[in-house]
Amino acid sequence: MAWRLMYYAMLAMAAHLKKGHTELPLVAPLLFYHGEVRPYPYSNRWLDCFTLPEQAARLYHQAFPLVDVSVLSDEEILTHKGVALMELVQKHIRCRDMQEWLLQLVELLNAGYNTTEQRNVVLRYILLNGHTPDLSQFVHQLIEQSPEHETMLMTIAEQLEQKGLERGIKQGIELGREEGREECLEEGREEGIELGREKGKVETARALLRHGVSLDIIVASTGLSRDKIEMLKH
């Protein structure tokens, strides 16, 4: 019951934020009891709902642990094994050219710390959100230095390109009937590519949810709204 009260309080806080407020309200859970056993026989301290209540108290009564990848050196990140690939991508995804961290990326891809699905998610995210003057050259160099990922990389690249072109051509033809086929076909193609990127972000978010990645990290990684990611859980 204590956890249920805390859960209801969290729901009230979330509803408050959805209305546009930027700070959490104080919500005081209040339980009215009229059972046969007197007095109320259970703990009303929500931390007692944990198997290890004292450890839970230490965790939730202080600032949450933080891994600030922005201040970590690449050398240190490379020692983090299973989470190193995600940390490296988070640190460098906004760089103007992905070529700058290609060697570190290849090292982690070839290290064998991550499952095939995890590597697929990361590579898809990089191709969707990364920056480089020549994406084709970047993919080619990645394949040269990590040949075992060639099939995966080519499949992702082809899927993203095909989704964008198919949607773009269809939308361009529809618009072209009204405003002139050539002009609108190009516009539709551009919009289609953008729609393809959006769908890719949704697929990435779904994969991250399956691996238990926190909502905040998924929001930061994909650029999708919290509400949209919440909808993907169902």
UniProtKB/TrEMBL annotation:
One of the record's GO molecular function terms: double-stranded DNA endonuclease activity
Sequence ranges assigned to domain Transposase (putative) YhgA-like in this UniProt record: 1-119
GO biological process: DNA recombination
InterPro entries named in the record: Rpn/YhgA-like_nuclease, RpnA, Transposase_31
Family of the protein in this entry: Belongs to the Rpn/YhgA-like nuclease family.
The protein's name in its UniProt record: Putative transposase
Species per Swiss-Prot/TrEMBL record: Photorhabdus luminescens
